[in-house]
Design a protein that fits this description.
- The protein is built from 15 helices and 14 strands.
């Protein structure tokens, strides 16, 4: 089967350890041919049964007003379609696979679907533009309202052109069906974030060496957050949680990442008021994975204002390292229910600092090793790339024309 994967995320190597590359490698293992289109200016890369092709978007700039943004969107679509015409003129695709973000690829999907009579499968990783509304990045009135309506129309078109929509969790699925009554519920299913399973845990000797290397205490329970530090994470709440925990001598907090709100955390840390908190910039993935594995508990934060049910993929990294999880999120996501079902951690709402502190104090007195093993078992059963592959392939058998 010939599979075309469309993305606005940069893929430089099919062997990268990401949720998308891991899934694509599973397709390769099962004997399929993979073609990828992603942004870039370099020459394409070919390997055994796969081709990475790049679309140069350097000349496409969004601009700051609606007209420029609209024109850039049109140009991006045309560039992708032109690249398909040029490079894959003689290739007929059986399946078009694509993810959100973005929602603006529907014209590209529509072109290939019509040309090749392809089956189409959407990996729904965020629900835009509603997520932008929730955290104040977009509005429903005035010029912002026009932009919102434009993107909402594109979202609906993407759902319509998709033969199947794979959602990250049950709450994700329920939201899509409830807020898009024109979508056939029969074409919406759970296809979770997934990875190629690798045991990322470390032994005691490595843990001591890594902690010493990064000047992290050996005799404290270390809570680690790794990933994006932007508005979706609710940085002001994180800062208040850290501040409220600064006198707890038995714990140490490590935050690793970057993003639009990084400076807020940096400003707080620079005051020197908190001795049990360390902030580090994003690092190479292999180094990051080892650092996480040398900690004790993985942290997940989501802004309490979200009305859409997010399901952060960073959970998988913690589970692969056999770390239990403390998640502080909005009440709309079902992440807390999953953590409870898998018996691998704790959950609280991200609007109550006192409850966060209570959870931290509870964890101090808990043997977390069994919870970490529970999480790793849950990862194998539910979030292996082979599981997602099986879901997708089974669904394609049931698509009718």
């Amino acid at each position: 089967m010939n599979v075309l994967f469309l993305t606005f995320g940069r893929i430089e190597d099919i062997n990268d350890r990401t949720i998308y590359c891991d899934l694509l490698r599973e397709f390769l293992k099962q004997g399929n041919r993979i073609c990828v289109l992603s942004p870039g200016s370099q020459e394409g890369i070919s390997g055994e049964n796969y081709r990475l092709e790049y679309v140069n978007l350097d000349t496409v700039r969004g601009g700051s007003n609606l007209i420029k943004k609209g024109l850039s969107t049109i140009m991006v679509k045309r560039k992708y379609i032109n690249e398909i015409k040029k490079v894959y003129q003689s290739v007929r695709f059986d399946l078009v696979l694509y993810s959100t973000p973005p929602i603006t690829l529907f014209k590209v999907v529509e072109y290939v679907k019509k040309r090749d009579k392809s089956q189409t499968y959407l990996l729904l990783k965020d629900i835009f533009p509603q997520n932008a509304i929730d955290i104040g990045l977009m509005g429903t009135k005035g010029l912002k309202g026009l932009i919102y309506k434009h993107f909402r129309r594109q979202e609906k078109r993407l759902y319509k052109i998709s033969d199947m929509i794979g959602c990250m969790s049950q709450a994700n699925l329920d939201y899509v069906i409830e807020h898009n009554p024109e979508v056939d519920p029969g074409k919406v299913e759970i296809c979770p974030n997934s990875i190629e399973i690798t045991d990322k845990s470390v032994n005691d000797e490595t843990r001591k060496r890594i902690r010493t290397k990064y000047d992290i205490p050996l005799n404290r329970k270390v809570f680690v957050y790794g990933g994006n530090l932007g508005k979706p994470q609710g940085i002001p709440f994180i800062i208040e949680c850290m501040r409220a925990s600064k006198e707890i001598e038995e714990v140490y907090f490590l935050i690793v990442g970057d993003g639009t709100e990084y400076r807020k955390l940096e400003n707080y840390v620079s005051t020197g008021q908190q001795k049990n908190l360390k902030l580090m910039k994003r690092m190479p993935k292999e180094d990051y994975d080892t650092l996480v594995a040398a900690c004790d508990v993985g942290l997940i934060f989501l802004d309490h204002r979200f009305t859409i049910p997010n399901f952060p993929s960073r959970l998988l990294g913690y589970l692969a390292a056999k770390l239990p999880v403390l998640a502080c999120t909005d009440p709309k996501t079902d992440l807390g229910q999953v953590i409870k079902a898998g018996e691998f951690g704790w959950w609280c709402e991200s609007d109550n600092i006192d409850i966060f502190v209570e959870k931290v104090e509870e964890i101090i007195n808990t043997d977390t090793s069994q919870l970490g093993l529970n999480g790793y078992s849950y990862l194998i059963e539910h979030y292996a790339a082979s599981v997602s592959y099986g879901i997708i392939m089974n669904s394609l058998k049931n698509i009718t024309r």
